[in-house]
Amino acid sequence: MAVATLTTKPQHKSQQKPQYKPLTKKPLPAGQPREWYVSHNRRLKAMRLAIALLDSGIYHPATADNRRISATAERIGVHPPSDTTCRMVRALIRYGR
Question: Are 39 and 64 in contact (CB under 8 A)?
Fold first, then answer.
């Protein structure tokens, strides 16, 4: 019977390289009206929440009620979303299919 041999030593966790590199944040462009920044940040938050919901197995907008979206926001460490942001999250889930 053949036996497989290990040719390299396994690395310890402290020696392993991370699988991803975090993105560096860039400053937002200056000179836009305040509403532009508000809607931009709302879209970013909605995308983060939609991704977290999809990762947790919520694939239908009907199952993503405001309470579940707020619980997800608390779990990932963002401020509770408004009703407008919750509607945006459901729209992203709906049209992302």
Answer: no
Is residue 76 within 8 A of residue 53, CB to CB? The reply is no
pLDDT, one tens digit per residue, over 3-47 is 655 565 655 655 666 566 777 888 888 899 999 999 999 999 999
Alpha helices in 1-97 (DSSP H): 34-55, 66-76, 83-95
Contact by Cβ (8 Å): 64, 53: yes
CA dist 84 to 3, 22, 56, 63, Å? 60, 29, 22, 17
Residues of the chain with pLDDT > 70, as a percent, come to 77
Q: What angle do CA 84, 97, 50 make, to 5 degrees?
A: 40
Structure token digits, residue 53: 């919901």
